[in-house]
Amino acid sequence: MKILVIGHPDAVLGFSLVGVNGKVVDTPEQANQALDEALADREIGIILVTGDVTAMIGSRMDFLRLHSTVPLVVEIQAPEGAQPEQPSLSELVFRAIGVKI
Fold first, then answer.
1. Above 80 in pLDDT, residue 56?
2. What is the arithmetic mean of pLDDT over 12-38?
């Protein structure tokens, strides 16, 4: 199972330092294309999407967070940090697959 990061250049670079591949996106079109490719790849088990990208494609991310289990789609903090209303990673995993971590 592979992990893929989609989003901000700093996040993609940071994850690449520990061996996780990623795609830098700057527009909603690029974000949707990267998500389409990741969802079609059967080797990817987790897709991490930065908060700035989530803001660009909000309704699609809402749908994927609630309905996609394989791969699991998870929002990670944007470069400016977490928003107060943003649920924790463990809460997102619990909502998506019903398992507390």
1. yes
2. 94
Residues in Cβ contact with 6 at an 8 Å cutoff, skipping those fewer than 6 apart = 12, 22, 23, 25, 31, 34, 35, 38, 47, 48, 49, 50, 53
Q: Would you state the structure tokens that stand for residue 94, as one six-digit string?
A: 């619990």
Q: Decide which of 56 and 98 is more confident.
A: 56
* Cis preceding linkage at 71, omega within 30: yes
Q: What is the three-class DSSP state of 22?
A: strand
Query: So where are the chain's domains?
Result: 2-97
Choices 3.30.420.40, 3.40.50.10580, 2.40.50.100, 3.40.50.720: CATH for 2-97: 3.40.50.10580
